Amino acid sequence: MLSKDSISLLIKNSVDVYVYDTVTSTNDVAKELSSENRCILVVADGQTNGRGRQGKSFFSPHDSGLYFSLAIDTSSPGFNFTGITCAVAVAVSRAIRKIAETDVKIKWVNDLYIDNKKVCGILVQAVSKGSDISKLIVGVGINISTVDFPDELQDIAGSLGKNIDRNVLTAEAVDNILDLIFKNPEEYIDEYKNNSNVLGKEIVYIQNGISHTATAVDIDKKGGLIVEKDGEKITLTSGEISVRFR
Ligand code: BTN
């Protein structure tokens, strides 16, 4: 059972913890609760309007998943915007490997996979104040034991399939995120690449509604995916690009 006290005790960083039974989206609640100089963590048992990237929804059934969002004050010293999405992917995959004792792969840019099925999605949103980004909302959804996916997700979504303590996994993931996002990407990009399930593969990327076939060859320090297409190297950076395996 999710517990504010357990999570607060387990987290090493200074974080204000809020635990709910059901919310619309932990990202939305974290945005509302975010405050200057504080790091806010919102965890929920279920979401009624879980958000994914590119305006998609994130299936968030009650009790069988873990849904949390961190609101981070980006005026904190040492904050590093470059490669943030890669930092979060590495941080959460480390936590899953340690707590669930299962290997997990990273699909660019920050989906986590087990046996070719997506088990975790990450949504990073910036909150702006004028022209400055004042807060970052990092949302993480992990399918822990979900089996009853809707038809359209049956073939592509999976879960950790382990009976793990969600409080322990939350604390581990949050501490890892707060550690890595203040580091230089050089310190974690090799781990990201070594755990990528995309590098070396032929992929299809969709840009402005048009599909292109290319080979994923590298990931740069900013988290851009370098692909080779018709003998030319192109770096894919936009959040609007989606990548599929061929
Ligand atoms: C994706 O796969 O496109 C990203 C999914 C992110 C889902 C998490 S669940 C917790 C947080 N709250 C949300 O509404 N979304 C993120």
Q: What's the helix and strand layout?
A:
Layout: H1 4-10, E1 16-23, H2 26-33, E2 40-47, E3 65-73, H3 84-100, E4 105-107, E5 111-114, E6 117-129, E7 132-143, H4 166-180, H5 189-194, E8 202-207, E9 210-219, E10 225-229, E11 232-236, E12 242-245
Parallel strand pairs: 1-2
Antiparallel strand pairs: 2-3, 3-7, 4-5, 5-6, 6-7, 8-9, 8-12, 9-10, 10-11
Helix pairs in contact: 1-4, 3-4
The chain binds biotin (BTN).
Structure commentary:
With 246 residues, the protein is an alpha+beta fold. The chain has 2 domains: 191 residues, Bira Bifunctional Protein, Domain 2 (BirA Bifunctional Protein, domain 2), CATH 3.30.930; 44 residues, SH3 type barrels, CATH 2.30.30. The protein is 22% helix and 35% strand. The protein is built from 5 helices and 12 strands. A 7-stranded mixed sheet has the order 1-2-3-7-6-5-4, with helices on both faces. Strands 11-10-9-8-12 form a 5-stranded antiparallel sheet, with no helix packed on it. The chain is globular. Biotin (BTN) binds next to α2, β3, β6 and β7.
